[in-house]
């Protein structure tokens, strides 16, 4: 059972999200918060697997709450498709960013994806986000990454290209379990929280132009 905390300042939105989550047999809402401070407190008390976090809330907003939450994965859910929110959410440690106009099934799938340790971005902003990071004027720093094996470098480049584990396995002719092991090693060596941070580190290191 995936335990979910819902944080949104609108009671009707919280009720709607809880209702959607309640239709899934493998998901359970364990708490609700109307502001960021309450979300941080409940996350520490209830230890949910995933926190659905709104951005614009009174007092402490969702971005600050995301930075303060540890031990739970955060999925940002917002009506605002704005670049600065995406960047701030990812820097703050969020594992995903989804727009509120996503279909219910996409929301449920997103929670499951976040729970198993993968990252997720709304399809409408994924390519723009990667392009924006790649276009930043800061010089590449190839020395910022520790030594990687040739196979780990191959896997990293394919992760940065947006391929799933299954697609990487097909591309390299190796087993999916081997890909998962390489991705786990990359996350550990690069001290990255998820695949999104691997993509950012790859661009910053100048491995992809």
UniProtKB/TrEMBL annotation:
Top-level taxon in the UniProt lineage: Bacteria
Any Pfam family hit: GerE
InterPro entries registered for this protein in UniProt: CheY-like_superfamily (IPR011006), NreC/VraR/RcsB-like_REC (IPR058245), Sig_transdc_resp-reg_C-effctor (IPR016032), Sig_transdc_resp-reg_receiver (IPR001789), Tscrpt_reg_LuxR_C (IPR000792), WalR-like (IPR039420)
Single annotated GO MF: DNA binding
Entry-annotated residues carrying 4-aspartylphosphate: 54
GO biological process: phosphorelay signal transduction system; regulation of DNA-templated transcription
Domain HTH luxR-type as annotated: residue spans: 141-206
Domain Response regulatory span(s) in chain numbering: 3-115
The keyword Transcription belongs to this UniProt entry's keyword annotation: yes
Keyword match Electron transport: no
Keyword line: DNA-binding, Phosphoprotein, Transcription, Transcription regulation
Protein's UniProt name: Response regulator transcription factor
Organism: Actinomadura decatromicini
């Amino acid at each position: 059972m995936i335990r979910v905390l819902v944080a949104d300042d609108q009671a009707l939105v919280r009720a709607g999200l809880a209702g959607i989550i309640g239709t899934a047999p493998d998901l359970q809402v364990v708490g609700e918060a109307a502001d960021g401070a309450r979300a941080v407190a409940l996350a520490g008390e209830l230890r949910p697997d995933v926190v659905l976090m709104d951005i614009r809330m009174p007092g402490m907003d969702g971005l600050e709450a995301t930075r303060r939450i540890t031990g739970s994965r955060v999925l940002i859910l917002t009506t605002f498709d704005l670049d600065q929110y995406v960047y701030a959410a990812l820097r703050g440690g969020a594992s995903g960013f989804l727009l509120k106009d996503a279909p219910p099934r996409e929301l449920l799938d997103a929670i499951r994806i976040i729970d198993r340790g993968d990252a997720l971005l709304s399809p409408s902003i994924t390519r723009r986000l990667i392009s924006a990071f790649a276009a930043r004027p800061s010089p590449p720093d190839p020395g910022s990454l520790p030594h990687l094996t040739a196979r780990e470098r191959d896997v990293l480049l394919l992760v940065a290209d947006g391929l799933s584990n299954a697609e990487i396995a097909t591309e390299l002719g190796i087993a999916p379990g081997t890909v998962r092991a390489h991705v786990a090693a990359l996350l550990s060596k690069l001290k990255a929280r998820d695949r999104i941070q691997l993509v950012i580190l790859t661009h910053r290191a100048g491995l992809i132009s």
